[in-house]
Amino acid sequence: MRKAFLLLLAVLLVGAVCGPAGQALGASSIVIAVDSPPRTMNPHGSDADSNLGVMANIFEGLLQRKGPQGELVPALALSYEHPDLLTWKFVLRQGVKFHNGNPFTAADVKYTFERLAVPEVSEFVNTGKSFTSIETPDDYTVIVKTKDPTPWFANNMHQIYIMDKESTEKRDPGEVGVKPIGTGPYKLVEWVKGSYLKFTANEDYWEGAPSIKEVELRPITESSTRFAALVSGQADIVSGIPVELYDKVVQDPKIDVVSRPARRAIFLALGNEPGSPTADIRVRQAIYMAINEDEIIEKVMRGHAAPAAQIPDPPTIGYNADLKRLPYDPAKAKELLKAAGFEKGFELTLVGPNDRYVQDAKIAEAVVKYLAKVGIQAKLDVKPKAIFFPEVNQGKTYFYLIGWFDGTFDMGRTYFKLIHTRDKDKGFGEWNGSNFTDPEIDKILESTASMVDRAEREKTLQNLNKITMVDKIAWIPLHYQVDLYAIQKDKGIKFQPRPDQWMVFKEISKQ
Amino acid sequence: MLTYITRRVIQGLIVLLAVSFICFIIFRYAGDPVLTLAGRYATHQEQEEVRRAFGLDKPFYVQYTRFIANAAHGNFGKSYVSRIPALNLILERVPATVELATSAILIAFLLGVGLGVLVSLKPRALRNRLIMAGSLGGISIPTFLMGILLIMVFAVYLKILPPFGRGETINLGWWRTGFLTLSGLGHLVLPAFTLGMYQLAVLLRLTRAGMREVLAEEYIKTAWAKGLPPRKVIFKHALRNVLIPVVTMTGLQFGELIAFSIVTETIFQWPGMGNLLLISIYESDQPVIVTYIMLAALIILSINIVVDILYGFLNPKIRYD
């Protein structure tokens, strides 16, 4: 009698549990597994792409980026003007509501811009401190003035998300970091940290309600577990497939692999201290030609990389399609070293991260081996990114491996940080870890600061690109990474990867 | 007895202070959080401003004393990454880890002791020899390998168990539990097994050794001679005496399982404390790391004290003064 009762209880329990669970994923819902969890629901709290990409579904900026080239198009702003070097005027979209029903007005934009400068809540301190004034002549117009001419200002607006002034001021920062209120196509329903995020479509979204109604985002940091989630059917789309598992994934008949050249270029930075061997252009050419990049792509990156001749990628202003890589020629490299007087080589240490980029430590290892083959006594020094990046920032790394891509699609901003002579007062060269300095490059760079005409900027930056890569060999470019995604085949999912690796749900559709 | 407890508690506090001091020193040199806090495009001036805003420009002893003073009031600082109080961040992950550790220790105890008794009765039988060989594997195979193997076999090939996560959980007030749903229990199987495998093997061998020794004792022979049923001889008389050291060990291991389930939680994407610790180390999130290690030290210290006192009650020969 007791046994029968227990059996009945068990059945009821199973029924109670399996019932609702079965309805959880209907026809218009999707599960996405990503490799990095979002850290906070405060849209200014992190400038990492893993966070910004999730925020892009809940919040919106004045502008947004769409399409395979990341084209800048209107979002919360209908249009913008640049009347003079320091002024930007935005005309805002009307009739937009935040998720809590509050109307979107210029006051929200002003509040957002002012909030950017507060270090306790924002990592966009640099952007926040660049304003000298923010005016709102009426509810749907914003006029900002910047301290210095900032040609890429509008280009940055797709990652500055507008917050609701009233609710953000009322709530404490802890709640703001957990319960987001934006204008975006999706609302956050539940966030169990480390487990999943559940989103539901915002039916009142100004562009029209998105087609997929329920989205579950699951961060899985361990790549083999992400792979297991993919092949066991637990996730519909998986981002960040590790290159070592690519072959296994491609063989699975139920899975489609989608790849896309990434925006990030991996390159070597090399100092040019007067008197050192690397100040001689021939030595720099020798180092460039000693590295067999094709072999690195084939063996280390397993074919998932494209050789790079420069740092910007094709859609970026400053990309110069005429630039070509120097050929792999170790014999010529040895000749050049001899001509420069370094037949016996010299000592050089390559510093790099071991947990930041795809196969970063292995690439550095390969480079060191190639250099050794032409007689340069190269040493390897790889370390975790938490230690590596501060060293670069402090200018302690003479020869290092690093990756970069510019979110504003304008090489000018990047050049100021990466190659301009270090100048603490002016804020130049923060990421010029090798202390590379060249007055000609500095002069051209500074002249672009006031250029706003896109054609003029493009021409000057392309020229600057050529000078840095060909005449001075400021950097030795290696390759562009490739982003790999996998999709379950028979679910009718249409997914176009974005250049910034963001997972924007409104751009995914499912039949 | 009371003086003993007071003495242990004071010793515990000293250990906590020492742990916090060492943590503070180590993580001061393990990366600069200001770089992440100020954003990629910050100038040096802006970085210095951020440094001042977070009090990171003050000398070491000032930062440390401020931290201890705040900690005494329960304020362990805010995470640099998510700007939420560090203690809350860790506490909301406690249920996940505690449930995982409890399941692991239950599996380890029940199976370990059960199999240990079984094996001790007929040590030379083939089946029992195989079990002993298996236990050797349990001790030698590293946790991450065990976890990945189990995922491949049960989730990818056989597709009968889920490869990651906690499944459906229910909120009992503040405690998020996976024990009350079938999905939650199913998700517990592989991680609990992985985490408990080492303890299982150790307990198995310990029980077997203890039982072998006890079963040869005179009073057991008397029990057999008296004609008592085997169940009574083995469990009531023999196992009871073996259990004292076994239970003590299990209690101590429980603290360790809670504090250091990092690898298992990473493999199975289990949203517990260990997972948080690993992420925080990668991102130089000092407040969370230091708080976590202090919490772990507190848990282990407390469990040790409790176990020592209980042991005194269990074994009348032990006297504390």
Topology:
The complex is a heterodimer of chains A (511) and B (321).
Chain A: H1 2-23, E1 29-34, H2 49-58, E2 63-66, E3 71-74, E4 77-84, E5 87-92, H3 106-115, H4 125-128, E6 131-138, E7 141-146, H5 165-170, H6 173-176, E8 186-192, E9 196-201, E10 214-219, H7 223-231, E11 237-239, H8 246-251, E12 255-270, H9 281-290, H10 293-300, E13 305-307, H11 330-339, E14 347-353, H12 360-373, E15 377-383, H13 385-393, E16 399-404, H14 411-418, H15 439-448, H16 454-471, E17 475-488, E18 493-494, E19 509-510
Parallel strand pairs in A: 1-10, 1-11, 14-15
Antiparallel strand pairs in A: 2-3, 4-5, 5-7, 6-7, 8-9, 9-10, 11-17, 12-16, 12-17, 13-17, 18-19
Helix pairs in contact in A: 9-11, 15-16
Chain B: H1 2-28, H2 33-37, H3 44-53, H4 60-72, H5 86-91, H6 94-121, H7 126-140, H8 143-157, E1 170-172, E2 175-177, H9 182-215, H10 218-226, H11 230-259, H12 262-267, H13 273-282, H14 286-314
Antiparallel strand pairs in B: 1-2
Helix pairs in contact in B: 1-14, 6-7, 6-9, 6-11, 7-9, 8-9, 9-11, 11-14, 13-14
Structure described in brief:
The complex is a heterodimer of chains A (about 500) and B (about 325). Chain A is α+β, with helices and mostly antiparallel strands.
